[in-house]
Amino acid sequence: MKANNFGRIAIVDDDDALRDALAWLFSTRDHEVQAFASAELFLADYAPERFSCLILDVRMPGMSGTELFERLKEYAYTPPVVFLTGHGDVPMAVAALKGGAADFIEKPFSDNEIVDLVENCLRADTARRNQWQARHAVEIRLSTLTPREREVMKLILTGRLNKQIADDLSISMKTVEVHRARILEKMHVKTAMELAALLRDAQIDTNNPTE
């Protein structure tokens, strides 16, 4: 049984000895680990919700660690990625940082050094994943709105009154009232203020909530 609340760590490295050593190291620190000998094997078994930190070797036969990282960006959510590098791979790792990787560590490294680095990533993943899940839940609700409801919602969020919205859209005030009620119901809120707060907390632009 795990002694912490962190998620699973994935190790992707073609070096059998290093891969096994890292898997053993993290398991002795009560982390759940899964190791892969290649980027291709990892992708065949990958889903964003399965891992909370990815440790990728920069250079591997076939698909490299940096190529794998680019593939991972195609998913809706990418867990923190730590690159393992040799001295000559540092420029590649720095470029990956600019592209969104969490960090890199140069071989050889100490056990404490890599454990501390990965545990920081795991903590960051918890906060980021919670925010992503909250945003995703709101986006699902937004996707249920009809085009007209989206128009009305944008005007509601600017503070326009029902009569003003009716004039803006050349529809009756009764129709606006019906749209407003349906919008609040679909978004699981009771007032326009709650709607604005929901979008703000999910970090969705209230000026363009459906874009």
Automatic annotation (TrEMBL):
Coiled-coil ranges per UniProt: none
Superkingdom field: Bacteria
Keyword annotations from UniProtKB, A to Z: DNA-binding, Phosphoprotein, Transcription, Transcription regulation, Two-component regulatory system
Keyword Transcription regulation: yes
Domain Response regulatory, chain residue ranges per copy: 8-122
Spans through the membrane: none
Any Pfam family the entry gives: GerE
Name assigned to this protein: Response regulator protein TodT
Gene (UniProt): todT
